[in-house]
C-alpha cells in the first residue's frame, strides 16, 4: 500500500495511491501534491474539466491557493472538496474562505461508525435486539459467510450489485468500472469480497475496504431470494469480526442519512439496516466547490441539474 506523501499519509481509501491509479484506468487525470489527490474529469465536447478532492485532510488557505493554481493548469471550472473531517473538529473560518461555495454533495454529509475496540461479545450485545435475533436466525438456518476473492465470486457479486441497483432504483457505475477497481485494490490488500451463501447459492455479498486501521463498507448487494434468512445481517456481523481480526478500530458504514429520517426518505431502508448495529452517527463538514471560473460555474450548475434528471429517469426505465 502506497501513500501520497510520507509526511502526510492518506486518511481514506479514496485518497490512497491505488485509488488514484484505478481512476487513471477510467481516463481520469490524477494530480497529487502533499496529502491531496485530485481527479480531473473532462466535460464532454468541451475543453474544460471538473476537479474532485474527496475525503482528504482539511485544506488550509495556502493549500486552497495551490489547489486553485492546479485547477487553472487543468482548465477546471471548479474543484469539489469533501474533506474527511468531522464538523465538530473544523474551524469556523473554513466556511469563510474566499472562492468557496457550498456545493452539491457526492458523498453523504453523515456516516455511521461502529466502534471495534470493545470485545466481540460487547459489540454484539450493543446491537438492537431484532438485529441480534436475525443474526442468530441466519446462523441457525445454515447461512455461511466467507471471504471469497475468486473471479467467480466477484462476477456473481457484480450480477447481484446490478440486480440490487435496478430493484432499488439507484445509479451504479458500469461493470468495467468495478472490475478495474477490483484489479488494483484487491491485490493491494484494500478490497475484500465477502459472500453469504445458502445451499451453495450466494444470497448477499459485501465488498469491503481496509485502510489505515479502518474497515469500510462501500458496496453491498443481495438477491430477493430467501429474504427471510436475513443473510445481509449475518454478513455485517461477520464483517465486524473480520475488522477486529485485522486490527481495525472502526467500521465506517460509508454514509448515512441525517438523524431521524422520515419513512419516505429514499435511503430510509439503508438507514434502518445500519441503525440495527447501534453505530455512532458522524457529521462531516460537508461539500464545497472551490470556484475557478465563475461564469462557467453558473452554466455548469444548470447543465448538471438536467444531467441528473436524465440519470434518475434511466433508473426508473
TrEMBL record:
InterPro entries: Acyl_CoA_acyltransferase, FEMABX, PG_Glycine_Bridge_Synth
Gene3D superfamilies on file: 3.40.630.30
Keywords, alphabetical: Acyltransferase, Cell shape, Cell wall biogenesis/degradation, Peptidoglycan synthesis, Transferase
A Pfam family assignment: FemAB
Keyword Magnesium: no
GO biological process: cell wall organization; peptidoglycan biosynthetic process; regulation of cell shape
Family: Belongs to the FemABX family.
Name the UniProt record assigns to this protein: Peptidoglycan bridge formation protein FemAB
Organism from which the protein derives: Candidatus Shapirobacteria bacterium CG11_big_fil_rev_8_21_14_0_20_40_12
